[in-house]
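Hi Y.,

Following your request, here is the sequence exactly as I used it, all 121 residues.
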Amino acid sequence: MNSHRTRLWKVVLRELSNDLKLNITVCHFPPGTSKWNKIEHRLFSFISQNWRGQPLYDLMTVVNLISHTTTNAGLTVRCAVDDTKYEKGIKVTDAELEAVGVNKHDFRGDWNYTVNKRKIR
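Below is the corresponding structure, written out as tokens. Let me know if you'd prefer a different format.
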């Protein structure tokens, strides 16, 4: 069974799909494989180099150090604090999840799926 968080993720992804009028395909990395995530290798290593030896006293220090990360190859990083207050404990019913119309892929459908802008029937 999906956790409440993954159920809500799919419902909100469906809303985004409808708003953008696009099908959205999701391919998750399996647990424990973040070391193969190209974004982590291309971005986080430079962030770590930029704040090396700097005391991370507070959130704004972290945001400023991340925001000032650049490379000679042209990488620039944008970073901002999200002050949005998100509602906790949102429950998604089985019917709401079913209405999303998740199209699971043949290979590892729990990790790889498409959310279509209209319900699949």
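Residues 4-115 form one domain.

Thanks again,
Q.
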